[in-house]
Amino acid sequence: xxLYHYILNSAGHRVRxxxxxxxxxxxxxxxxxxxxxxxxxxxxxxxxxxQGLIPALEVDGSILTQSMAIIEYLDxxxxxxxxxxxxxxxxxxxxxxxxxxxxxxxxxxxTGVLAYLSQGMGLDEKKRAQWYAHNIAKxxxxxxxxxxxxxxxxxxxxxxxxxxxxxxxxQWGNARRYKCDITPYPRLAAIVSACEALPEFxxxxxxxxxxxxxxxxxx
Length: 219
Description:
By secondary structure, the protein is α+β, with helices and mostly antiparallel strands. The protein has 10 helices and 4 strands, in the order βαβαββαααααααα. The protein has 2 domains: 80 residues, Glutaredoxin; 115 residues, Up-down Bundle (Glutathione S-transferase Yfyf (Class Pi), Chain A, domain 2). The protein is globular and about 45 Å long.
């Protein structure tokens, strides 16, 4: 397997976590999303993923895109440990939690949107930060309630990580990096703490990736 990703990209972070939880080795190919680099827009990468989005996973000559689709593929082809419950209701609840991150929060706060707010709409850094913090608070407020309904385990839905945890941790990391107030979400904080105690999550974190210090120094 070959994973095209970027260290600070939360969608790629999700896939790294899933690959680690499944115990799958992969070749890492970094695609630099920084302004001035814009490797996701280069012809070579567009030939891999015409959307110009990260991540992409190459498996036996086939290219898979969109992090949720990639993770569910991994769960279907490598079912142990499972990332989705067998019970249909519980499965739908886990998917709903994960999609609240992937479909509601992340699209409003991804790098393309933030860049357009600055360059296309003329928002200064303060207003852009307000946009980011607003969407984080709106999303995490609802996730806190959803997670509190399943507080009988260390993770979002029980005693083992699921797709919900795989999606939550990168979004939480982004909120930390952008200095958002995350104190109102104690249940989410406890879940993230439980996840970060696992090597599969720690090894997938941005700061555990080769080149992290260089990227942060050059941001």
